[in-house]
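Please, structure for the following, as tokens.
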Amino acid sequence: MNLNILYFAWCKEKLGRAHEEILSPQSVQTVSDLMTWLRGQGGAYEEVFSNTGVIRVAVNYEHVDGAWRLNAGDEVAFFPPVTGG
């Protein structure tokens, strides 16, 4: 399925890109599946998605967990937790 992927903060820095459009395999059905598949692409993807517990995800501007089912055309944003004062 076609997905529009956005990367923020250190995810963006490590990957060297803020966004990309991907065509995921049919095995990618959930956010967790997507992160696992991206990690399997190697290189910087492996580093960014090595500890998915520290990455937050939004699909179409809604914060979701790994079990969220993806649909073609979804916008998926990956970002680390944000703190501040």
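The first helix runs from residue 9 to 15. The radius of gyration is 12 Å.
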